[in-house]
Design a protein that fits this description.
The complex is a heterotrimer of chains A (280), B (299) and C (360). Chain A is an all-alpha fold. Helix content of chain A is 78%, strand content 0%. In chain A, α5 packs across α13 (229-237), α9 (171-180) packs across α10 (184-195) and α11 (197-213) packs antiparallel against α14 (244-264). The chains are: A mainly alpha (280), B mainly alpha (299), C alpha+beta (360).
Amino acid sequence: MAGRRVGRLVGPSIVVVGLALFVVITIGPLAWLVISSFMEQQALTTRPPDFSAASFTLANYTGVFAAAAQLGQGFANSFLVALFTTAVAIAVGAPAAYALARLELPGADAILLMILGTQMLPGIVIAIPLFIVMSHLGLVDTRSALIIVYLSFNLPIVIWILRGFFLAIPRGIERAAAVDGATTAQIFRLIVLPISLAPLFATGVFAFIESWNEFFFALILTRQSARTAPLVISQFAGQYQTVFGQMMAAAALAIAPVVALAVLFRNMIMKGFAEGMVKG
Amino acid sequence: MGTLEQRRRRAGYAALAPALLILVLILAYPIVDSMLLSLQDLRAAGGTFEGRFIGLSNYGALLEDRTFGAALSATAYFTAIEVVVVVLLALGVALLLVHPFGRFGIFRIVLLLPWAIAPVANAVLWKWILHANYGILNVLLLEVGLIDRNVVWLGTARMALHTVLAVDIWKSVPFIAILLLAGLSKVPPVLYRAARLDGANAWEQFLHITLPQLRPTIAVAVILQTLWSLRIFDLIFVLTKGGPADGTVFLNFLAYRTTFNFLDLGYGAAIANVVFAVSFVLALGYIWLLQPGLQRAGS
Amino acid sequence: MAEVELRAVTKNFGKVAVCRGIDLQVADGEFVTLLGPSGCGKTTTLNLVAGLEDASAGDILIGGRRVNDFTPFERDVAMVFQNYALYPHMTVAENIGFTLRLRGIGRAGRRQRVAEVAESLELSGVLDRLPAQLSGGQQQRVALGRAIIREPQVFLFDEPFSNLDAGLRIKMRAEVKELHQRLRVTSIFVTHDQEEALSLSDRIAVMREGAIEQYGTPAEVYARPASKYVARFIGSPPLEFLPGRVEGEGGLPAFRVGAAAFPLPLRTAERLVQGAQTFALGVRPEHVVLSPAGIRATVRLAQPVGPATFVTLAWEGGELVARVPGMASFAAGSAVHFQVDREEHLMFFDDHQGRRLATE
């Protein structure tokens, strides 16, 4: 194991210090986010901050929905957009991933490379033309516009990750099904999908997280009614008078569901995405 | 050639068609359109778009545009430093986590958190942390005595750039560390055993086994981080809006501002295409690196 | 009638010719094994018969019909896979009944037939279990059940026992043999284990680099191998080849290998001397006996394996392995005498092409 080699590379005390530093630096800001979201403005604006018991309150969480215009609506929009994007991405992407993984199509490699290439696109390149198109179609400030655009970067990821998983399915099982009389579609539906539920779900979670966190296109394509949570939060934070605790509460609410999902599915996420990016 | 291949192909193309259609419509078409747009003088005024064809004039104008030049060099500087620092720090973190002390799952959860947070939420958090008067960073530093006065972290162009750099490094290191961890776990342990028998000490093993085996992963990490650095936006938008004095205007942000604030779509598209071109070259490098993996996986 | 016939069947993967012009006839009810080392094309050939791969050229016929364009199901073949390939998310009953389900047979009908098949394979008790909960032998039997329920024209086996431990292998071999004797379905079996091939088959096709080197009964490939390749592949441990030449003008002809001379029947000698080629002699260890009247040699190595001991004998000019019954012990370097028990067991090969020279 590589670990033992590292162990002798530096003394154990350095490792402990390193790990401690790593945890503190990484968790510190996040911990502060949560802590300060429960603190009153008064407590946060005294120097040093007042950490007595009286300073802690839930008021920020209740108050933020009033103070941040349309925060609730923002969350609703984020949820719907992320949900639909994920659903379509999986529904369309899974068969495509299977075709690329197993069906030995000529040109599959080229298609794969193109799909990989789309991941490298900076959003700004397609943002401008898409904005024009959406304007012409009257789709600016609609959830549908966001879903369509989010598909553009979620679909390739979904295809890429699922392809990796499908490749790992032992061929024998699919062959046995063929001999038993299953068509390609039946093999996919009755054999491949049922045994891929975990990766399918994890990939869905991944796409959901990416959609939920997205800001750039939401900024460009929405105005009032289709604003997503990240957008509402950034506007809220940009206001002149900020109640810091409320700002943190808003941020905490926005990241909580995603963090929960990420932690729950961390194994599959790390396996699928990281390894997929590394070994293709 | 019999019907087995025909059957497969029919099924395969049918399965691929919807996905490809979506991608072509949403990606291919806009990319082409972006090129065309950059060849026009297109402005948005009063809800309509009026444009005329001007060939490569936009690109010509870019060459003389000092803001563009400044953005270009700022982006290059930012990206170069971020990539180096992130990869090095991530390597350190990955090595820490591969050590027996670091094998607990809790560390990997910690690793995943910065990635999971919405970049905007992250930006808002740091806006608060970096607040000149009440931000916890100044409070702590004052308390410890490292500074004697509140620092306005985003006060000057130079400071703002480096602050943004530090924040983005904070957010980026964990995920690159995950990538490197995946690469580290692929090094066959038997190589270490063989080296040990050959008399290599820990440092030599690291130098001659770990690093070379990790090279492809590091290369991938470098390219990915470069691509992500080029795309930095949320932080800028929330923290500095490009200021002070355009000090944190990077290429991506400049394209956005030109298009959506100054409503000069043609010019904005030209800037966007420059970013695209650089990304494209990097993407080619990435794909080239992964080629052997693709063929192996395909057989 | 379920004869299987391959005519000039070729399969290319890109530029690599994995199967080169294969001709094979399997009679109805016959059990034929494709035998060879990994990479020789045996599994690919099997997949071609199954319809899991398309032939690049040639014809595949089952029951007299050309089936190149048929799906595996349409060809009415069933297959037992290496690694069993059981559907991990389905119970034993569902695994066996899957093919019926695809055919649209209702649950009641399926249950009946699955129960029958399970009974015949002693799987009735585990019908509700998932594959992961079964032992290796049980999984293999489920794989067999899945194939049997099809009532196919042809059974195909792709190295089904390679993953089992030795004891289980032998047991499963017996089960397959019994099954074949009971059902008499045309079967094609792929393996790299020559012992398995010999014990199970009516005929064996020994394959080499995409072509069939010899196609004959177990007795034929054992006693009358067509080439060095076949001679070496069949039998364990593999026999060695001794280069030498014919001598004996006037008196009794013999094949001289260094200090040893093996007596030759006259007709054999005549056939050998035609043409100035070099020859090699091969003798199976089980046909080399230690006998005081034989050629003198020293023991180099003795490897006891239980029922026998394999003794490597060396003399000036050559080396042979002798199979001595029982667990015998020999000191390295001790002197012994050996001879070949019967003249028929001397096999001569043309060194140039490797073909065996027929001596009968």
